[in-house]
Specification:
By secondary structure, the chain is an alpha/beta fold. The protein folds into 3 domains: 93 residues, Elongation Factor Tu (Ef-tu), domain 3 (Beta Barrel); 111 residues, Rossmann fold (3-Layer(aba) Sandwich); 51 residues, Dihydroorotate dehydrogenase B (pyrk subunit), domain 3. It is 18% helix and 33% strand. It is built from 6 helices and 16 strands. It has a 7-stranded antiparallel beta sheet with strand order 4-3-7-1-2-6-5. A 7-stranded mixed beta sheet has the order 11-10-9-8-12-13-16, sandwiched between helices. It is globular. The structure holds flavin-adenine dinucleotide (FAD) and FE2/S2 (inorganic) cluster.
């Protein structure tokens, strides 16, 4: 794990409140795995906790890491104002990441909203040895630049898009278009990241069709390194920490995505 001030190469507003931050970190590029995340430090001391952001992509040739993030609150707003003459302190890579060892499988990758962030590097890895189809759900065509950027890692005809308002792709939700594709295609495994409701619906589809589903989970995180209790989740193997045991879990191991007895994290500021 690295804790390092990294030179910012660029920080580009790619769609509405979505940005791609590219930083230089040659050592980390050699070690990262799709699905892992980094804790990014804010300079403003009022926002003293680091913010967890997934690795979106990496470029071993240039020694750079890419983060796709959405401005939600004060931390990500601060990130959006960083420019290429500055540095940012990042800690990671953290978490387990996705299993990218699969070979000769028919794989579906399903992402909703900002859940598409960890999927680019995953596709890049899996598409080398498998037949991959990508299903992405967004609000509207305003996100077209982000969607188009996936065409650099997977053939356009294997990308299926759903949007809430129908302004791009099919009107509706991404799980519905995946279900339709299931009538035509067979899948050995699904990988997914997105809102909890989407993951729940996808889990039901996976169970009904006897397909393995690996999901990347999000939770507010205080430390990111299993030192608090902020990110605990109930699984069939007991309580697990999303930052350390995850963020990727087999959906069959999760008892509930909204645990009623969830340990509340009172220190996330
Ligand atoms: C493992 C992991 C990977 C993540 N990867 C990405 C990524 O690649 N890109 C990205 O844009 N975001 C990602 N997130 C979510 C991101 O960490 C939060 O959006 C961010 O910390 C919000 O910080 P803030 O200071 O801007 O907002 P805050 O001011 O802290 O909060 C603003 C709003 O965002 C909500 N929020 C805060 N933290 C989270 C969280 N962890 N998950 C969901 N909602 C949250 C709050 O409840 C509040 O409604 C990831 C989270 C985790 C746990
Ligand atoms: S965020 Fe502190 S234990 Fe996971």
């Amino acid at each position: 794990m690295f804790l390092k001030d990294c030179k910012i190469i660029s920080n580009v507003n790619v769609a509405l409140n979505y940005f791609i931050l590219t930083v230089e970190n040659r050592e980390a590029v050699e070690k990262v795995r799709a699905g892992q995340f980094f804790m990014l430090k804010c300079k403003n001391e009022a926002t003293f906790l680091r913010r967890p952001i997934s690795l979106h992509n990496c470029d071993p040739l240039n020694g750079t890491l890419e983060f796709l993030y959405e401005v939600k609150g004060k931390g990500t707003l601060e990130f959006s104002k960083l420019s290429s003459d500055e540095t940012i302190n990042i800690q990671g890579p953290l978490g387990n990441g996705f299993n990218v060892e699969e070979k000769n499988k028919n794989i579906a990758i399903v992402g909703g909203g900002m859940g598409m962030a960890p999927l680019k590097l995953l596709i890049k890895n899996l598409n080398l040895n498998n037949n991959v189809k990508l299903f992405l759900g967004v609000h509207s065509k305003e996100y077209i630049n982000v969607l188009k950027s996936f065409e650099t890692v997977i053939e356009k005809e294997n990308i299926h898009i759903a949007s809430d308002d129908g302004s791009i792709g099919v009107k509706g939700n991404v799980v519905a278009i995946f279900k339709e594709e299931l009538e035509r295609s067979k899948f050995d495994k699904i990988y997914s990241c997105g809102p909890e409701k989407m993951l729940e619906a996808l889990h039901e589809v996976a169970v009904n069709n006897n397909i393995l589903l690996d999901i990347s989970l999000e939770e507010r995180m205080a430390c990111g390194v299993k030192a608090c209790v902020g990110c605990s989740i109930k699984t069939k193997e007991g309580m697990k920490k999303i930052c350390y045991d995850g963020p990727v879990f087999s959906s069959s191991k999760i008892i509930e995505l909204h645990p009623k007895e969830k340990v509340e994290n009172s220190c996330c500021n």
